[in-house]
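User: Okay, second chain of the day. Same drill as before: sequence in, C-alpha cells out.
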Amino acid sequence: MPELLEAILWCAALATWLMIFFAIASVGLKPFARSIRRLAAAVFRAKLR
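Assistant: Same drill. C-alpha cells below.
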C-alpha cells in the first residue's frame, strides 16, 4: 500500500510540474505563434489569388 501511495504522489507531482511548465511555455510562445499564424495567412492568401 505505501508503494502505491508513493506512486500516486509522484504522478500528482509530475502532473503539477508539467502544468506549470506548459503554462509558462504557452505565455512565452504566444507572440511567436501569432507571427507564424500571420505569415501562414499571408501565404495562403497569396496562393488563392
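The first helix runs from residue 2 to 48.

User: Thanks, on to the next one.
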